[in-house]
Fold these 4 entries.
Entry 1:
Amino acid sequence: MLGLEIPKRRADQVRKTLLKHSLINNELKIKRLGDYVYIPLASKLGMDVLEEIGLEDIKTVDMEFEIHKKSPRSLKDYLKGHISPQKIDEIKKSFDIIGDVVILEIPRELESEKYQIADAALKFTRRKAIYRKGSEIKGVIRTRSLEHLAGEDQSETIHTEYGSKFLLDVRKVYFSPRLATERERIVKQVKDGEVIIDLFTGVGPFSVSIARHRKVEIYAVDINPDAIYYLKSNIELNKLQGEVHPILDDAEKFLNTRKLEANRIIMNLPGTACKYLDDAISSLKEGGVLHYYEFSSDFETPVSRIKQAAGTRKVSILGERKVKSSSPGRWHMGIDAVIH
Ligand SMILES: C[S@@+](CC[C@H](N)C(=O)[O-])C[C@H]1O[C@@H](n2cnc3c(N)ncnc32)[C@H](O)[C@@H]1O
């Protein structure tokens, strides 16, 4: 292996110059023998570097160096030499960590490396189960198929978000940790005493987080029996100041039979929430706040839909945000609107 022999007194200065030019082979250990230090080189030195160092008392050598036994610190470290750094970055961006479960996307061309990637993810994240996304989120209950790749095949877990705990099964219910900031933003807007409808509640991340901090009354509705089962557990699992009523029902049916008058309605079903806008707005008190979500490439589409559904009632837009990317050029948009 290629190395540089340097007298001890000059070793530090030469090491700094080599570092500056990324010429040290960091996988090998620097050696000290008698009055000399031997630095493993990543490549041959050019004349410019040799001149900068000063040639008089150093020489290049061919010798054995010990390999560093450093433990890998990143997914890149684990997969180095097997998968290109760009592909690893793509996989990393797709990571969703929900409690002890990791869900990741592995492109088809890496099919034969999938177990190796999953094993690396298991070691890197120190979670218990690794699943691969097997489909897009689909259907009424908004779940996806998952392929178990490493660790335990245990899809039920407890996820903690801003201090709230959520028991859920990633195979049976929708849950996205990427909405944590959005939920926290909504929690901060709520005041004690409000009556709230969380129309597509899932396992209750909006409802439970709000009720942990505020003395409110929340009607948390979902059509998926598993979501309502976990919502009930989550009401038990968290110390709530407010009251959450879990309701297993279709949103439209619920709104039309209960005819509540709410201060705030949350509509996080971005693909089809627009179908329920008329009924939801009818259940909002004068001056009530609507948190409406829609997949869109612009803000105008969801805003004009809200205005149309409000009819003769005045609408003031409080805020509009790209909550997360859903596909190239399209976002999960969030609109906050006051309906007067
Ligand atoms: C995108 S998830 C949102 C869950 C939750 N709000 C969250 O932030 O994690 C939408 C939820 O709406 C529920 N859903 C779909 N259609 C429904 C309907 N017609 N009535 C009530 N719930 C419905 C699904 O079961 C799913 O749990």
Entry 2:
Amino acid sequence: MRKLYETEERAKRAFLVSLTAGKTGGEQAAGVELRRLAETLGLAVAGHETIRVRDRQPKFGMGSGKAAGLAEKAAELEADCLVFDWDPSPSQQRNWEDLAGKPVVDRQELIIRIFAERAGTREAELQVRLAELSYFLPRLSHKYIDLSRQRGGRYGTRGGGETRLETDRRKIEQNIHRLEKELEEVRKQRQVRRRRRKRQGLPVCAIVGYTNAGKSSLLNALTGADVLVEDKLFATLDAATRRFEPEPGMVSLLTDTVGFIRRLPHSLIRAFRSTLEEAVLADLLIHVLDASEPDIENCFETTLSVLRELGAEDIPIITVLNKTDRIAAFPSETAGQTAETEAASPVEALLQRFPESVALSVKNGTGLDELKKRIAVSLRKSRLSPVQ
Ligand SMILES: Nc1nc2c(ncn2[C@@H]2O[C@H](COP(=O)(O)OP(=O)(O)OP(=O)(O)O)[C@@H](O)[C@H]2O)c(=O)[nH]1
Ligand SMILES: [Mg+2]
């Protein structure tokens, strides 16, 4: 997968396109995120345009004039591909590719490809492969992908006739079936591990949250583990579990999980269910937020909604505001606009917005003791409550 964008000397150039209905906020953050996703994949951003769309016309998801303008712009910028922050239907995608004469990558595909690059274990690889195939199957007829050459091959190679297509469709369906069976085996092993942990009677805390919030960093800080930490999206794709003592003598397990992102592709949620379920089976969730993230509300809501989708909404949660070192030095933008009002510090403002949360900085080590205390109290409480 990786080679798709790296076989040539220069990085592939992407022209990013976002849509806005004109009313919602948060477009800027979504735009920054799209850029980060593209860059995580090794693409160079040639340009980024946000289009105001009132009328979602079926052919391109917008008017033909607007679409033609964007295709022209992409050519001017010498972009190698277009990256959309929205999910065109398979036929819209084909129309766009015909119009622009370049591959069109939507947000789902971007995320799936990042997952594919980062999958490090057999389970993650199987899960990503499954998500990829489920994504490509309905798109086969127009974006012809030669499966045997996908690794290292050219992007979106078209060619072959109907027969070839049918054969490939069947091949993919068989592959999906085989992968599902193989995954089932791996899942069984995971279940055995879980049962063993249950027999040990150890309470389990799971660290959850938006991608890049600092979950793995927190696991490392609390347990002395050395799980990979990176300033990239989706550094972690596997649930790593370590022994953890929130207070001397109180032994528990702490699990790091895959990060969430808004509009996480469904095929990925489905494929990663067993990894994500680590969160569902925990006695306590530690929800890590990046306090320096301007769109923190959206990150907060996204995580809660994925947790709901997984059926984990009843598990006690401790919310953590991480990376406070990055905001402590700056005056709050919302508080203290006038001279008369007492300016709350940015951290205080966030604590008001997320009451009961623990502000900390993994980087500086501040707030970690407070978090350990809160975890110990919560685990003691859940021990006292009746076993479900
Ligand atoms: N300034 C600052 N940076 C931090 C802090 N905690 C983590 N980081 C940085 O944030 C980036 C992401 O950290 P990770 O621990 O990999 O984040 P994650 O939530 O595990 O990310 P994914 O696995 O990608 O979902 C890294 O560059 C860390 O060094 C902190 O307290 N302060
Ligand atoms: Mg991580």
Entry 3:
Amino acid sequence: MTRRPYDVVVVGARPAGAATALILARAGLDVLVVDRSRYGADTLSTHALLRGGVLQLARLGLLDKIAAGTPPVRGCVFQYGEERIQVPIKPHAGVEALYAPRRTVLDPILVDAARDAGAEIRFGVTITELRLNRAGRVTGVVGRDSTGAAFTAGAGITVGADGVGSRIARLTGATVERAAAGAAAFIYGYWDGMRVDDYELFYRSGTAAGYFPTNRGQVCVFAATSRRRFRSESRTGKARVYDRLLGEAAPGGAHRAAGARPPRQLHVFAARPGFIRRAHGHGWALVGDAGYFKDPITSHGITDALRDAELLARAIVTASSGEATEEAALATYQATRDRLSERLFDVTDQIASFAWNLDQIPTLLLQLSNAMNDEVSWLHQLHALGGVPTS
Ligand SMILES: Cc1cc2nc3c(=O)[nH]c(=O)nc-3n(C[C@H](O)[C@H](O)[C@H](O)COP(=O)(O)OP(=O)(O)OC[C@H]3O[C@@H](n4cnc5c(N)ncnc54)[C@H](O)[C@@H]3O)c2cc1C
């Protein structure tokens, strides 16, 4: 017997997809989430959450679960060359601290919450095609499960939350509306025995580095540089490049202190310029990196994914209740996403270019901070409106 179509099928079960599904399921929609990976698997990403991301997790009622195993971060340290500035995280409106949960912690908490809210979750399912009706509207997904068996599911709306290499974006032909020029390469790993309580960020001409305290007493330590420099040096091996970049950006940092033990494994992201894509069409929408990818240098992708999950879920709920047409509701989603993202996207692009010097980087970081503050104020206003049952 063929199952009736789901209200929504979401492709991708990480911050964007799981959070969208969670809010939709809490609003009473019939939701399926599929992901080709496995439950709890790690992914290539550092994981510092900024205020907007923590706010969204609090709003979803999940912050206590994150905080149970992840150290609170109550300050950010910015070091530009020899100058060191510490900025405390001011407790405000439910955000007392920031957190950098490992993706093996954060992503399953979101997935569990979506499942508890009634969403059906299937891991090991790879989507390869879309179902279309005669009018060209997307009506569901086609793929295969982990045994290789054919998989198909009908949907009122199909959501691509399938990350930066989004197949759903490719299949729908979602156009790139803005493209970034800068692109940073990253090498990171998990250190033991380091004494770090704050997010610490280091900037030197041509390099940057950062410490994010995370679960199990470890510290995620990244080093970054321009794509061009990474390409020219990568043949010397990732361990050498990591040591060199860290040595330049954070010469006196806590990773050099006695007792600090370097990682056995290093992870490399070899740079990819950002983009903002069209976010919707007939029967489909994109959320998270699938529709809007910024260079990771400003550590804002998960925060944005959690923000846009709520924006998209609101639009889908509005359309399904008949309060607005699907086209109008999804157009509002895209317009809001773009308005909130533009400044973050631009300043991130400038920082990722590494075309700044030590006199210029504080101004860029101030612009970033102002854009983030505006985003958080806007989220507070959105939350005050009510609308979707988030927790
Ligand atoms: C090096 C690096 C460092 C970063 N550091 C930070 C940071 O410190 N803070 C921060 O906020 N952000 C950071 N980011 C960005 C962050 O990782 C992303 O913004 C975030 O993961 C986006 O979430 P998402 O749900 O949109 O996509 P993803 O997390 O990419 O999830 C997409 C999911 O879709 C699934 N999928 C893909 N294709 C298919 C298919 N065809 N069928 C089924 N499933 C599919 C994948 O298996 C995956 O699980 C970093 C990124 C990188 C690369």
Entry 4:
Amino acid sequence: MNYRHAFHAGNFADLQKHAILLALLEALKAQTPTLSVIDTHAGAGGYDLGGEMARRSGEAEAGIFRLIESGDAPAVFAPLIARFRAMNGGQDGPLYPGSPLLIAGGLRRDDRYTACELRDDDFDLLRRSLAPYAFAQASKADGFETAAARAGRGGRAFVLIDPPFERPDDYGRIVGVTRDVLARDPDAVLAIWTPLKDLETFDAFIRALETVTDDALVAEVRLRPLLDPMKMNGSAMVMVGAPASIEPAVAAATEWIVQRLGQKGGSARIWRTKAA
Ligand SMILES: C[S@@+](CC[C@H](N)C(=O)[O-])C[C@H]1O[C@@H](n2cnc3c(N)ncnc32)[C@H](O)[C@@H]1O
């Protein structure tokens, strides 16, 4: 496993994923007395954007710092900006919260949170990030297996799936774990992040997902036309079981990113695999 999220923290894809994650958490808390959140690919918990990896990639400069500087960020980004500033003592940077700190900071005492990470170095950072939260558990275990095993064991399951896509079977494992989680908890909600490189790969994934659920909300950030399959041309959030009330926030985040961070020919697409 070579992937280090520290290179990518705070980039355009994190903005979409994390703004939607926070909006979904709030919507689900309003509906559900107890949540059991499983973060299948948690990473380090939080990131230093002034560190060598982030500075080398420059992705945060083109992401969170552009968002902050823009002055026209829609309301959907307000919770993420607030959490980013809180982590930095009220200032803009250099620390950026990953999904574990965003989730743990948004949960209630009776909710449960399991964060999975396989890399030794990122797991040590994750464990330290989550130490203040009694309801949160850092687990050095495979996230797909953990989600399938934990769903349906108390609390409504909310599963964030955010793999590095280094392995060719990641798409197949996402479909498998979606099937297994829904079998154990039909009320479960899943939020899946994917890169957008070429359309065939993404279409094949959606077609496979449709064999296990007929209720997916898809939000595509196409930064530019998907012409070069060797490039990450955008990213998508695919949500299974998401409440309809989330759609305006999903659209606002996705459209702003394309308009302000995208290139000529970019587009935002928000659609459901079936009519809601
Ligand atoms: C994209 S990063 C996660 C970023 C994080 N979700 C966030 O938003 O802040 C993916 C992480 O998954 C870890 N990983 C890869 N395969 C895994 C697996 N099967 N189970 C758990 N973690 C895995 C990688 O080491 C990497 O740190």
